[in-house]
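Help! Submission page says 'invalid entity' but I think these are all valid:
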Amino acid sequence: MPTLTIDNQTITVPEGTNVLEAARQLGIEVPHFCHHEALGSVGACRLCAVEFLEGPVKGIQMSCMVLAKDDMVIDTGSDGVLAYRAQVIEWLMTNHPHDCPVCDEGGECQLQDMTVAGGHGVRRYTGPKRTYQNQDLGPFIAHEMNRCIQCYRCVRTYQEYCGGKDFGVMGTRQRLYFGRFSDGPLESPFSGNLVDVCPTGVLTDKTYRYKSRIWDLQEAPSICPHCSLGCAVIPGARYQELQRRRARTNRRTNGHFICDRGRFGYGYVNHPDRPRAPLLGHRRVTWQEALAALQNHLHEFCELYGSGSISMLSSSRASLETQFLTKRWANALGSGQLCFEAHPRRDQAARVAASQAPDCSASMEDIRSCDMAVLVGADPLAEAPMLALALRQAARRGARIVVVDPRPVELPIDCERHAAAPEELPRILQGLTRPQQNAFASASEEFGGALGRALLEAKNPVLIGGSDLLGPQGCQMLLKAAEACSPTGSTCRSMLLLAGPNSFGGAMLSDDGPGFDALLEGMEQGRIKSLVCIEADPVADYPDRKRCRAALARLDLLVVFDCAATATVQEADLFFPTTALEEAAGTLVNNEGRMQAFEKVFSAGTPLLQSAAGDHPPRFFSRDIPGSHPQPAWTTLARLLGRDAELEKVRRELEKIDPRFDGLAGLTADSEGCRVVAPRQAPALVAAPASGVTASDQLHLLVTEHLYGSELLSDLSPCLQAVKSDPYVWLHPQDVARLKLVEGKPVRLCTSLGEWTLELRINGDISPGVAVVPRLRGTVVETLVPGSEPMLCRIEKA
Amino acid sequence: MRSCEPLLFKNRRAEGPVFLEGYRKNGGYQGLEKALRGMSPADVREEVKASGLRGRGGAGFPTGVKWSFFPSDDAGEKYLVCNGDEMEPGTFKDRQLLLADPHHLLEGIIISCYALGIGTAYIFLRDAYRECAGNLERAIDEAAQAGLLGDDILGSGFSCEIHVHRSAGRYICGEETALLNSLEGLRPNPRSKPPFPAIKGLFGRPTALNNIETLANIPHIVTGGAAWYKSLALTEQGAGTKLYGLAGHLETPCCVEAPIGMPLGELIRDFGGGVWKNRSFKACLPGGASTPYLTAEHLDVALDYEPLEQVGTRLGTGGVVVFDDRTCMVAATLNLLRFFARESCGWCTPCRDGLPLVCWLLERLERGEGTREDLTMLQEQLSHINGRSFCALALGAMGPVDGLLRHFAEEVEDHIRMGRCPLQD
Amino acid sequence: MATLLSEKQIAQLKRRVKETPHPREMVLDVLHAIQDANGWVSDEGVELAAIVLGLSSLQVEEIATFYDKIYRRPVGRKVIHVCDSICCWSRGSEAIMLRLQQLLAIAPGETTADGMFTLLPTCCLGACGEAPALRIGRTLYGGVEPEQLEAILDKERAEVES
Ligand SMILES: Cc1cc2nc3c(=O)[nH]c(=O)nc-3n(C[C@H](O)[C@H](O)[C@H](O)COP(=O)(O)O)c2cc1C
Ligand code: SF4
Ligand code: SF4
Ligand code: SF4
Ligand code: FES
Ligand code: FES
């Protein structure tokens, strides 16, 4: 641990820390362009010079390239250093177009900052400047090559960190070109990170083009709501419009980057069809009217049928505070008919996940630093995109990555793939739970056993499972397997991918409460007369849409709280508009059990672009801000409970009632969050029915999440429509030949839920005997939901 | 005229290259036999270290010392890479050697591989040297046929193979770590050091890297012994002979082998035929395009590493480029800097953007448009580029600027004062 | 695309790529093969190289555009490389370049209308002892006087035509 002195302050840093990082630990920011915490030092920009006065190195050197050593005495601002840095800026500015007024980076541009800080006010070079043709890089990223300062951060992010292969650097000397081989959309699902890493206005967010300067934006630390990982983000809003999202740094979770679904999924907040006023039937009413109606009805039901006739459903989209107050409200009404997930298997799986000991669960940071990862039934890019990036970082350090899946799981790394049939997965997990065993009942179990032994020999192994494919039983086996595969002196950590950003929170609060199946039964039997959906969309999320619709139709009262025009909202008798995540504060518990607080970014209201058709100021007068009716669900619940709508109080109450949430009240949104301190009890599971393929023309139907088009909110984002796929079915070439089908031709998919015509795609990585169909909302197959009981299907020529 | 028994050029004939027969007739492969039959690898390394041989690729690092950092005894894949990029203007010695006598290099490589416990060698050859590549490929075939290359060489149990890699231009590929990237099929930007190639080089494996001429000296050190080799030099601290390129304004430009430590003036007079057209000597680059100029007052300096350092320049590659009294040194420097700016790999700012700015300043000065501010700016460039770039290309590039400002300040001033080049009438 | 190299050549290169433990190492060999057969490497050439090497087109382009002796734009039947480095400059390369421009009626970087010659400046050819030097196709000419150029061009032209 070397001790050194920087600008008269002494600090001791870990071996291997470079001087730039050591200075940063003292709060001294050495100007730099090419260094990036996640990308490391490459010594290209040569801006980070400091002067070494004493110690093993002398003179002006690049701080990012020199490791901190004992007895170093460093001046980061000597005259020589300042003159040199000003020179570097002059070099970088010789060809720069200096077009700040029309550059989207302006105000958050490192080059601008450095130019001003370096005092480079006059261009001494008067020769001609180099210019470039820009490329069309697709819907997400704008390209303005003339502004480039050749720091190579973009290539290093895109190729090295993210594993993309279609963006890079071409040419040499002063004629470098950062771009693609030819015009076309960037292929990496992490392309948006180029916006954050590029220190200039070359690569900017196309969806945010010419919208705002950073100082006009309302920004606050927030969490991405588009999968269960809970990546840290900073949304930015202006004129009542959410205009962009950028990555925030959380070293335990996403690190510095986010996925494109997370970055560009923000558009749901501004959706023109978003219901923004309370509705009674189809009639707009005031909050008072709506609340009175709600209270009257519920009172009536209690009187007439008892409190058991009232049921409540929240979801993994709801904040922990909302879920908690939903539970309090149900308790207050005396109803036990409450659950937090409309999809029973997903519900059970989340309960299993939450039953894991918190110190055995793997964070994304654990995954980035693991030396072996086995994924069983998990498709990171579809179910939790940033997990794919975390795995890539592990692989770059030499970790062994094994994917066991019936689907053609794609990862931005080379990895070992094992195309297991769906019915093989439990047997493989079985083997994984007994790595020490000598003889196995089947080859699949033996394979699992061998994987288990490899995990036992690793130093920091992780076992990752997807709850949709594994189901609750599989998830439970996976947790058992992780225990069995823990090397001595270390733990095999595990991670389960869950349905939504707060599945874990709901599972913690569920205790042994009923699943939505039981609620539906109550409705079917007429016992349950009313359902209050709080940010839940059972019509779309319950795997059997027909059954769900029929049951809901029997209700006397369907109440829906939501921020999006969901399928369930269409059926509501009484509707309450809620705020979107960015319009309120709250807490989410991610799939590893990490509680993460988020702040309010801006107040709900119809974007000016819509209410004033782009005009400013709007041409009508009103006391209200148009579209500002949505309220955070938890504040309404607090009102119904007769309490103060104070977040602090809600958090403290939860912490007090349920000590597993210890630490919640003290959480700040810009922290790394903290794990729940204890698990819930494991849920009692009933064995799943075995489903063998009976007829030779039958196939296993696997409905799976897709990067774009599956998750509710991001699917409402207009800019993601461009990358959404048309519905298709994936088959193994063997099955295609056996069934005499032709690639690219439409086929007919026949299931017990219905029949549809889709495009046929062939994939050799898929397990034979399986048909994979992505969940795509708003398409013909929208009623197919992942994570259902195993299902069979037939595929015929259309 | 001082005579010198040539070592590396001993088979150089006007008629063309010498291949296996001729090479062996003249003592070829005796060094290899001696090494394989009578010396341990450590003996060979010791001998090379004692010989005082210094790298001929430009940096002049003592070869034996460099080899001592190499994990010769470690198991696993290790490589030897022979640097034949030779693209620094004024440097054409490696080509002369390969045109005359390809086996000379092969023997050097095989002995070096034996000394360092290496089984695979690559010769990295610049694109323009197709004829040399042809000679080498023929020589490799011959050597393999004769049991001098391949498995179990001369029944010694030592095996080694040699591949020739054809590059596609770019001076930066000669920088050792850029060369490794180039060989691996990556963009030839230099790598940061440490780790040095000896520890983590080609494909992440230990790699010994030497210049063609350096390796061609090895057989002679083995046959003649370190003491004899060292005694060939004319200076106390020097060792061996050197291939000097003689180019520029000379009567008879050529490439010659002469002892290390040959006085500059003597070399120019005896081998270069003196300055052409009976003009007088104004300046020279002593060792290729990246070495600061010497002037008439330096004609007595010994062409050896230390003496040249003492007068603020380097032996470099030994490519002496002479300028007569009618040469505008601003124009010469501009020519050199244009080369370096064009060959910058584009990785780091001082080189990629600094060198073009230097060119722009020199252009202004040369055209007579330069001002005193431009001169100040040029001086700033010198102090800000030197030592601040990622690799030695930009440092080398500033060698001529350094020489210009040190030795020809008045000539630069004249350009500003007169508003034109003082050497043009 | 397949016409850029013969089926046999492609198969051979693919085999070599498969055999080496480090396929990327072959990138210049493949580009050289395509250039030797076609005079230059077109966009399709880059795409073909990418297929042979199992890389993306961009990954090949990153390499191809680094080297100045891989031509990514069409060139004439023969490329004239005129050394413009210091030794040749000191012995009159500028006059050589000017004379060639006159004789061919093109500027550096251009190709003659008949597609015969492309004129390019180049850095040191390693022929400093024979300065001024130039290379036409694979032939090196040293100690060239501007007056000899016409004859040299005629000879080179005749070589192609015969
Ligand atoms: C820009 C640059 C170009 C170089 N070009 C060559 C070259 O063409 N041939 C060469 O042998 N060394 C060249 N070198 C030196 C090599 O990096 C390295 O020092 C040398 O090959 C080591 O061999 P040696 O110790 O035998 O001299 C170059 C260095 C730099 C910085
Ligand atoms: S595009 Fe941006 S990130 Fe890439 S090199 Fe240029 S300035 Fe750096
Ligand atoms: S990985 Fe998930 S949480 Fe992270 S940015 Fe993407 S969608 Fe959002
Ligand atoms: S000094 Fe920098 S830009 Fe120049 S060749 Fe070296 S690494 Fe490349
Ligand atoms: S940050 Fe150190 S060189 Fe760029
Ligand atoms: S300078 Fe022209 S060949 Fe060397």
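Support: the input was valid. A stray whitespace character was the problem, and the output above is from the cleaned input. Chain B touches chain C through 52 residues (CB under 8 Å).
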